[in-house]
């Protein structure tokens, strides 16, 4: 029996099909309620943090400016994934055009790289605050912070921008079904009926250059922070210094652990459970924007007090 493989390129077809959690199609409506609540809390939480930092002059410090950058990237990540995730689970609409798919994966990868860069800047901020507290404000001035943020954005744009153009040159098989309900480079390029070695090498290059390098520099920052803290004679001051890093450490773990696991699975875990891959993919995209506002509002006394004043909690 002769098998026929059909191909399509951008001129023949313009649709990919998105996929929800395998095996749970009957409860998609109930799952959509969970996702809706996660998006509501993520968007409201990050928006509240941005609003409070903007209106309170006492929070116009480097630490909170970097926190506002993190909140912006988390907001963007929620907005980038929300349309397709809710369309699949809430409306059972699985189709997405190629151009929309390429645009979504561009913004998802751009915001992931930007968040990694912001976490690196926040590690640098904690290092300066602990190593040189007397020069902290003079080193991290507002113009300098603005330049650092701009460099991070330009770096992310420069490495992510080629990805959609690299994907557009491919022919795609008729089985154009993605294994997630959003578009990412690793999934889209696997559907190509062409040689994807260039894309695969470039994707690995981005992972090592951006995520790997940032994580290494964050680790080195904390090695130097720990070295500085251990030289402090007072035990109470040592604990107080380390306590200022707890929120950032939680944000780093929430971001890097699932994304590292998913990257390993995409490249080496061919026999891994599809359900596990799908759940892990939702964790790395949805959990950090949800939990970062909670962690920082609980650990930062000034931010926590300002939130309480803004939204009184009845007792």
The CATH class turns out to be Mainly Alpha
How far is the N terminus from the C terminus?
A: 74 Å
CATH superfamily: Rhodopsin 7-helix transmembrane proteins
Say how many strands there are.
4
User: What string gives the helices and strands in order?
Assistant: EEHHEHHHHEHHHHHH
Describe the structure.
- GO terms for molecular function: G protein-coupled receptor activity; olfactory receptor activity.
- The structure is a single chain.
- This protein is mainly α.
- The chain has one domain (12-306): Rhopdopsin 7-helix transmembrane proteins (Up-down Bundle).
- 73% of the residues lie in helices and 3% in strands.
- Strands 1-4 form a two-stranded antiparallel ribbon.
- Helix 2 runs antiparallel to helix 3 (98-131), helix 3 (98-131) packs antiparallel against helix 6 (162-168) and helix 11 packs across helix 12.
- It is globular, with a radius of gyration of 22 Å.
Task: Describe the SSE topology.
Elements: E1 7-8, E2 15-17, H1 28-55, H2 62-91, E3 95-97, H3 98-131, H4 136-139, H5 142-160, H6 162-168, E4 172-173, H7 185-190, H8 197-230, H9 235-243, H10 246-268, H11 274-299, H12 301-310
Antiparallel strand pairs: 1-4, 2-3
Helix pairs in contact: 1-2, 1-11, 1-12, 2-3, 2-11, 3-5, 3-6, 3-8, 3-10, 10-11, 11-12
What's a quick, concise take on this entry?
The protein is mainly alpha-helical and 315 residues long. The protein is built from twelve helices and four strands, in the order E-E-H-H-E-H-H-H-H-E-H-H-H-H-H-H.
């Amino acid at each position: 029996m002769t098998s026929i493989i059909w191909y399509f390129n951008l001129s023949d077809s313009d649709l990919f099909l998105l996929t929800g959690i395998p095996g749970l199609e009957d409860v998609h409506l109930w799952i959509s309620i969970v996702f809706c609540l996660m998006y509501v809390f993520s968007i409201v939480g990050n928006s509240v943090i941005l609003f409070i930092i903007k209106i309170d002059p006492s929070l116009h410090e480097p630490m909170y400016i970097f926190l506002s950058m993190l909140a912006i990237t988390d907001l963007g990540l929620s907005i980038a994934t929300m349309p397709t995730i809710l369309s699949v689970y809430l409306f059972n609409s699985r189709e997405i055009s190629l151009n929309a798919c390429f645009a979504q994966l561009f913004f998802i990868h751009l915001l992931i790289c930007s968040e990694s860069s912001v976490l690196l800047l926040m590690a640098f901020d904690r290092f300066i605050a602990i190593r040189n507290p007397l020069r902290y404000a003079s080193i991290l001035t507002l113009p300098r912070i603005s330049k650092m943020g701009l460099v991070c954005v330009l770096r992310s744009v420069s490495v992510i921008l080629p990805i959609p153009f690299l994907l557009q040159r491919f022919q795609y098989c008729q089985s154009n079904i993605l294994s997630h309900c959003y578009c990412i480079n690793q999934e889209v390029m696997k559907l190509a009926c062409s040689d994807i070695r260039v894309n695969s090498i470039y994707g690995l290059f981005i992972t090592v250059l951006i995520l790997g390098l940032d994580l290494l520099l964050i680790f080195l920052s904390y090695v130097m922070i720990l070295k500085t803290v251990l030289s402090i004679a007072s035990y109470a001051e040592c604990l107080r210094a380390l306590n200022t890093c707890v929120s950032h450490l939680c944000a780093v773990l929430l971001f890097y652990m699932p994304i590292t696991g998913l990257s390993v699975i995409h490249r080496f875990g061919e026999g891994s459970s599809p359900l596990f891959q799908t759940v892990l993919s939702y964790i790395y995209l949805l959990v950090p924007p949800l939990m970062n506002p909670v962690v920082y509002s609980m650990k930062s006394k000034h931010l926590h007090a300002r939130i309480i004043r803004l939204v009184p909690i009845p007792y």
